[in-house]
Design a protein that fits this description.
heterodimer, A: about 80% helix, B: alpha/beta, Rossmann fold, 9 strands
């Protein structure tokens, strides 16, 4: 337990110490919120789809969770070659505990990033429909964070260097984001895109957080939570397995 | 415990590591005595780091057998891990934590009880002359200070053997001398074995009691510095080394690791 805790604590400490990084990582979601939010607002309204900012905010919260989580997982590549993790890999502790500590730390940091985006969106006029559901929203955010940190660690355990990094960004992370319904409703998509959207775990994360924040969604909140929780558990298992196999 | 009281702390027999068809380490055998200072020398790409990785449980051998402090690094990883401390070739400190936090982190990973932990950390930080800087972020430290901190950290859990992979690379002579004096001191006081690699032949000649020279995955000579010099009729260890391994420069291609080293620096600066 102490191993998991110290690994988790290390990441939290680092997060709060790197203020410039927090601010830097907020640039992208803020840009999306302001540019897309106010840019598409009139079109969205004319199409009779309601207030775009209300629609967009949950999606952008999940976007920052997705990116922060994937990156803190993938950061493992450097950490294990050159960073402190090398030290950790020769310590007399089970690999599983190292993996869990690292994943929980990454997921916590990603969740905090989501919370900051949420608070900022309140400032630009976002309204929460039912404050009673905020704890469920937090749970949803944490599960999504856990899911993608595990995915990042699973990927990082399999690749040795950053050659494949752009590949991962362009063919995995960006599609996960764009096809999750974070930016636009997933209605009336061509069959292929629709199918991809349905197997995209972030789709359920975005849908779930819309339920909790703006009381709107395609699937039921229970379905969303269940699917995200199951995929998170599976990826945590896969990540642990692959992490166990790492040879320096 | 009878095993771990053997006079040899490291026993390597017929150790082999193949990557695909290439044998990076090709059936080497040697022993290191308890309390000895042992140098492991060889040109770039000779198999030094691969051997160390197998000794410290980071890599599984393709063949052969190893014991470290009486334990098998494949079957009994944690017993081996408790037995050694290590200073890696690449820095492995957390730059965003303070010197003391890095020490505490290590102590918790090695399950050192809290009361002993603080005392030992203070002792060692004073020993490497970093106690006054304990509260400073490691990123503000010079290369030499980081190395000293890594040595202190590696000693925290009273290892029976300390592995040092090019510990003095890129450091000025003053710092190098300091680092070796700490290590010799502990070697004497705690009868701790030291296993190190270096490219500085003068250092190996001065510090090591016995030396093994590895080339193309095989051990080509082993003995005291005097024995190696006598064997090759050389005046210095450097000449002995060159006469054993040849003058040809080893053109190692920049592997993915070297490319990552430079890119890693960029990444870290960015984030």
């Amino acid at each position: 337990m102490s191993t998991i805790y110290i690994l988790w604590l290390r990441q939290i400490k680092k997060y709060f110490r790197a203020r410039s990084r927090i601010i830097g990582a907020l640039g992208q979601p803020l840009l999306f919120l302001l540019v897309f939010g106010f840019g598409f607002k009139p079109v969205f309204q004319q199409a009779g789809a309601g207030n775009y900012i209300q629609f967009l905010v949950p999606g952008i919260i999940m976007m920052s969770v997705l990116f922060t989580a994937i990156f803190s997982g993938i950061d493992l590549i450097w950490d294990r070659q050159f960073g402190f993790l090398k030290e950790t890999m020769v310590a007399p502790v089970p690999r599983l505990q190292i993996m869990l500590g690292k994943t929980l730390g990454g997921a916590t940091v990603a969740s905090l990033q989501g919370v900051i985006v949420f608070v900022l969106s309140l400032i630009i006029g976002f309204k929460v429909q039912n404050p009673m559901l905020l704890p469920v929203a937090a749970l949803m955010v944490f599960l999504v964070a856990l899911l993608f940190t595990s995915l990042g660690i699973a990927i990082a355990s399999r690749i040795e260097d950053m050659q494949g990094f752009n590949l991962i960004m362009n063919f995995l992370v960006m599609p996960i984001f764009f096809l999750s319904g974070a930016l636009f409703p997933l209605q009336g998509l061509p069959a292929v895109l629709d199918a991809v959207a349905k197997i995209d775990p972030l789709t359920y994360g975005v849908d779930g957080i819309r339920h909790t924040l703006i009381s709107a969604g395609t699937f039921s909140l229970g379905t969303d939570l269940l699917i995200v929780a199951v995929i998170a558990a599976v990826l945590l298992g896969v990540g642990s397995y692959l992490f166990e196999k790492i040879q320096a | 415990m009878a095993l771990s009281q053997d006079s040899n702390i490291i026993v390597v027999s017929n150790l082999t590591k193949k990557f695909h068809d290439f044998a990076a380490v090709d059936g080497i055998s040697f022993t290191v005595k308890r309390g000895e200072i042992f140098a492991f020398l060889g040109p770039n790409g000779a198999g030094k780091s691969t051997t160390i990785k197998m000794l410290v449980t980071l890599l599984s051998p393709t063949g052969g057998h190893v014991t470290v402090n009486g334990h098998d690094p494949v079957k009994d990883k944690n017993a081996v891990r408790k037995s050694f401390g290590i200073v890696f070739q690449d820095p492995s400190l957390d730059d965003d934590l303070t010197a003391l936090e890095n020490m505490q982190y290590h102590a918790i990973m090695y399950k050192i009880p809290k009361d002993i932990r603080d005392k030992r950390a203070e002792e060692l930080l004073k020993f490497v002359e970093l106690w006054d800087r304990r509260g400073d972020m490691v990123k503000t430290f010079s290369g030499g200070m980081k190395r000293r901190l890594e040595v202190a950290r590696g000693l925290l859990h009273h290892p029976r053997v300390l592995f040092l992979d090019e510990p003095t690379l890129g450091l000025d002579p003053q710092t190098r001398n300091h680092i070796w004096s700490y290590i010799r001191d502990i070697n004497q006081k705690e009868e701790m074995t030291v296993f190190f690699t270096t490219h500085y032949m003068d250092e190996a000649e001065r510090i090591a009691q016995r030396i093994a020279i590895i080339d193309y995955g095989k051990i080509i000579a082993i003995g005291t510095p005097e024995e190696l010099k006598a064997q090759t009729k050389s005046a210095s260890l450097e000449d002995a080394f060159l006469s054993l391994t040849g003058h040809k420069i080893r053109e190692e291609e920049a592997g993915p690791l070297d490319q990552m080293r430079s890119r890693g620096r960029m990444w870290r600066r960015r984030s």
